[in-house]
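Page header: ASSEMBLY MODEL / four components / 676 residues total.
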Amino acid sequence: MVTLAEVARHAGVSASTVSYVLSGKRSISAPTRERVEHSIKELGYHPNAGARALASSRSNILALMVPLRTDMYVPVMMEIAIAVATTARSHGYDVLLLTGEEGPAAVRRVTGSGLADAMIVMDVELEDERLPLLHAARQPTVLIGLPADTVGLTCVDLDFTATGALCAEHLADLGHREIAVVGEAPAVYERHTGFAERTLEGLRRRAAALGVRLLHRPCEGSYESMDGTLSRIFDERPGTTGFVVQNEAAIDPLLSLLRRQGRAVPEDVSVVAVCPEQVATQASVRLTSVAIPAQEMGRRAVELAVAKLAGGAPAEQVTLLAPELTVRASSGPAPGTS
Amino acid sequence: MVTLAEVARHAGVSASTVSYVLSGKRSISAPTRERVEHSIKELGYHPNAGARALASSRSNILALMVPLRTDMYVPVMMEIAIAVATTARSHGYDVLLLTGEEGPAAVRRVTGSGLADAMIVMDVELEDERLPLLHAARQPTVLIGLPADTVGLTCVDLDFTATGALCAEHLADLGHREIAVVGEAPAVYERHTGFAERTLEGLRRRAAALGVRLLHRPCEGSYESMDGTLSRIFDERPGTTGFVVQNEAAIDPLLSLLRRQGRAVPEDVSVVAVCPEQVATQASVRLTSVAIPAQEMGRRAVELAVAKLAGGAPAEQVTLLAPELTVRASSGPAPGTS
DNA sequence: GCCATGCGTCGAAGCGCTTCGCCGACAATC
DNA sequence: GATTGTCGGCGAAGCGCTTCGACGCATGGC
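Prediction written out in full:
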């Protein structure tokens, strides 16, 4: 294990000089710097993370809390996590992976031990039990998702209210008058996950404003439950011609079942999905969709966290990404529309 | 920030005593221990991670390298990652998330800086460029996956050779004489990912031994590519009645397309998948499958890493999990079999 | 009654780094 | 030519913890 002191000896300078070369916090003459850098390379020196953290009270680690749940669409989480890790690296940070399992205890542990410099929290509920702790800790925090009360918090999220509105509008524009919303699994609503409720609210408002009837049904991602949900929808509203799907796992079942029932997409029914681009383009019908910008969310979250650590960011800052609807092959004019 | 010294003062003992209470490395009388524990609770003390790492040269962190690729089935990766994080916590470790992006440089950085005590590497290629470095580092390493040469390495993986054999055998037992293998994306084979090649080898061997014809075609996870692949398979081998699918993303397209072509599962063709349980049970037909024990793999990897850290594990140790085939609704006797 | 033994506790020496204050040298200013 | 300032570098003091050796005090064998 090569130490700073050895590098210093090898380069014929003092330890502090090496440190300043590394951090750039004081000016060092070019020749000295080069000598030191050469020694570092030659000896294969890597600063000891623990010592560095102890001396500077900065760990250069960002903690990322991911949900443990299996009822969320996993690829989005993974995409966010990878974007977080990648972006963090480009800012000189590593990422500590925390699962929701420990819940608030993890927050306490990490903030208490100085393990991480900042925290990024995913899967935020409207009234999340971790929020009070996050508030109390003087540790910078960024939420991916939007709780009910954002006072003093930094959040990044897709603007799901606008997303819902956009979907309603698109279908309304095409002449659809009865729209069904295939939502997330019931459990997601029960725990008051922000994005699900917001999407719904956006849909309802805009639908009401445009004089469109809206029916919302939560749905698990399996064929069985989709089958049941679909029957109930058409029983209750036989005139339904537009679908908005928010549960990615339900997309394939929905398309399959519609086809089996002899309902053509988009001739008989139109489908709009809220999902990652890849899912939209790889489904059996290329889906009109609002993309979930997972990478962008992860990237922004890290950048906000880094800005807060640098001290150049306001305490409260809500970043809502504007939704974009891409028209593909799954939506078209409502049947009977001229 | 509460420190050890403050706890010591509060409890009226020396700092070392508090440390020994925490670590249990020396015996402490019950009354003293209780006093110290009480002080810890009362002051809300959390040991500083950096100081601890510096003094003990143990960070209590496990590094997990996940692939950055998008052509692998992501939920499996995520499941492994979460199992790793959860198991690690139960052993007192946290998990550092590294993406494959940095490649060998990440290995050097982490081992060099003492950031992590051990390393768990996913998505290992047969001739992985990280292996030499991992070998050189005196840092315990566990691979999830099997490289070509396992000398001196600790690996955990599903026994994919046996998995392939099991699939071939199952279909052969049902009377199928022509089997098609819908494989992973071509890129996966090009980079010589161990599990893909092993499965294929297991399939080929057993198929040959049982006198069954086997046709292997790589396939992306989209409908388009599945469509093309399927046509080519039936063009070349019209008598194909058995399918083995290894690419999870291809499962839904395959089932959909077979149905559209009027081929009933399992009456006309049987399908066996290699995929997580959840995928098998949620597909439009409940799939006969060999499960990918993602959680088990993550758990085992952590346990091996922890054992190596404790010094009680051999350097070389290959753990192959035995595959289990669960018969569900997608496989049945070959047509024309009595 | 004396030495060996063991248990519970303390003190002190680092672990490898950052950072503050200081100092010498040299340039610029009047 | 004395004064001020800037630049480049050094030394030393910690950061909060672990751990080793030492010490005091019972205990027990002889």
